[in-house]
Amino acid sequence: MLRLYPFARPFLFALDPETAHQLAFAALDRAAALGVAQMFAPHVAPAPVTVMGVTFPNRIGLAAGLDKNAKHLAGLATFGFGFLEAGTVTPRPQPGNPKPRMFRLPRAQGLINRLGFNNAGVDQFLDNLAASSYRGVLGINIGRNFDTENARAADDYLFCLRAVYAKAHYVTVNISSPNTQGLRDLQSDAALAPLLTSLKAEQAQLAQRHGRYVPLVVKISPDLERTAIVAIARQLVAQRIDGVIATNTTVARDAIAGQPHAAETGGLSGGPLRELATNAIRRLAQALDGALPIIGVGGILSGEDAREKIAAGASLLQLYTGVIYRGPELVAECAGALARP
Hints:
Largest sheet: 8 strands, parallel, barrel
CATH architecture: Alpha-Beta Barrel
Strand content: 15-25%
Shape: globular
Order of helices and strands: HHHEEEHEEEHEHEHEHEEHEHEHH
Structural class: alpha/beta
Radius of gyration: 18 Å
Number of domains: 1
CATH superfamily: Aldolase class I
CATH topology: TIM Barrel
Mean pLDDT: 95
């Protein structure tokens, strides 16, 4: 069934992106529940790697944003991912920004979204996890509610961290989405230092309470200047953060100038983000000098794109828009490409 995606894609692409998203997940969930998805799953050869003290079956993961409420993990696991990241989840439910809020750019193999952390809230998220049969490596991406001021943002992140800690293999602190007003301001030195200090203190307490250390990861923007990347790298090392995801979506439009929907606000992902994200990974790797691992994401549409991100300094990779354009076969292709010398 999963190998039929190239035939299903024209039908899905004829629909509004969010409608297509819902229909595709409904079919995937049903197929997984019946065991059909597992029968037709692409073969991904095991290639385990240990990063942040966690052993991943392979280096290719799913980026946050595709399964915000952790409702579809069992189906997504049949794609062959080495790990899944669910969320972004916020303390309280919120509908996100008004529709339409997702736009495809097929010529560039890109996607613009301004969803705005639409999710059912952390309580429903945990209920969905409890009902899921997924037992693989799970990252949980946390954020603040849209109406929480940055001065109180730490309260939201701490609330979510406490709630999801026991269920996660790692927790990602999302401070880089362009679709929640003011969120990216948390990447500044003045805001980032106290936020990370609070989160690290809570992580230590939770580790003691649960008898288990869960790594903390920070997700950054691709639109940062070189000096800002260096400053963030210094903060991450100083605060003993366990890893960094580079990158989120971009607000830049140079790569899609003149294309339909190019003027839409929101974060741009997919092909147009590839070079920008790779450059951010490379600069981050230089600034970190091996102090902590990088999870690379942004514009991976082929096995060669995956190799490029690893060469730039990433230890793990994540896919999102590439799966929408290429389907499940992209996971096996990327894993296979990394297995080549």
